[in-house]
């Protein structure tokens, strides 16, 4: 059973741990959540109570919900994603005070190639400072922004579906991104963002966020799949074979992890452990006629809503 059970009130869109979270220090055991029709909450992971809230309001002065949320690298600020904009809160100042910045530029701006339209669906900051952070959008784009000025540096195109996750390698030199209903994870070199360096194949045939994660040595990428499998890629092998004609690499190995869609994977920051989660929406349709008196029920499907821990 879980140590703490937290009810967010509505559908949870996004969560993020405090970057310096240490279970030995209860004051640092914090995480953010954004959910439908609710402000951004900062939760105490020990007690399960709300520490404070950060509220965003639209032009009608009505509460609007963030679709993505993230601490910056040092935890001093909170970035929240909305449609065509982000809002930045000071972590130490809960409430409604924030800085609002458009991702499509000012009206009449000539820098159309650096505009990022649509809902900001995911945010990621590198663990090692490289001067920028990444925003993913449901408009199929990935944007890089300056950490100091929050100005757009470039917008990268290449996804076929809305971007659901962006994640820097631990050294900050590369950025990986994945999209919904898209069977590839794209890798971008921060020194040249014209096109992806390579692609990693996986199976994603739903609109869910199918997560991936990168190990602390930047040697392996683990990803969930909609075919109930977890796959991982040896990045050393990938980089050694970049000169080959094949730019889309298959997993080094795959294994059966659940009996349903594997939608979440997360690596332990210091131990050789991997956590995976599974589940999706299931719709049951009874095809039996009204005159059928057999009392048959809809065909049973195996539903697996579970979390598992793996030793790797």
Brief rundown of the structure:
The protein is an all-beta fold. The chain has one helix at 235-240, and strands at residues 12-17, 30-35, 40-44, 50-54, 56-57, 63-64, 68-71, 77-82, 85-90, 99-102, 120-124, 132-137, 141-146, 152-157, 163-168, 174-179, 184-189, 198-201, 212-214, 220-224, 229-234, 248-249, 253-256, 262-267, 273-278, 307-311. Strand 5 (56-57) and strand 6 form a beta hairpin.
Overview of the structural elements:
By secondary structure, the chain is mainly β. 2% of the residues lie in helices and 41% in strands. The chain is built from 1 helix and 26 strands. It has one helix at 235-240; strands at 12-17, 30-35, 40-44, 50-54, 56-57, 63-64, 68-71, 77-82, 85-90, 99-102, 120-124, 132-137, 141-146, 152-157, 163-168, 174-179, 184-189, 198-201, 212-214, 220-224, 229-234, 248-249, 253-256, 262-267, 273-278, 307-311. β17 (184-189) and β18 (198-201) form a beta hairpin. Mean pLDDT is 91; it is low at 293-299.
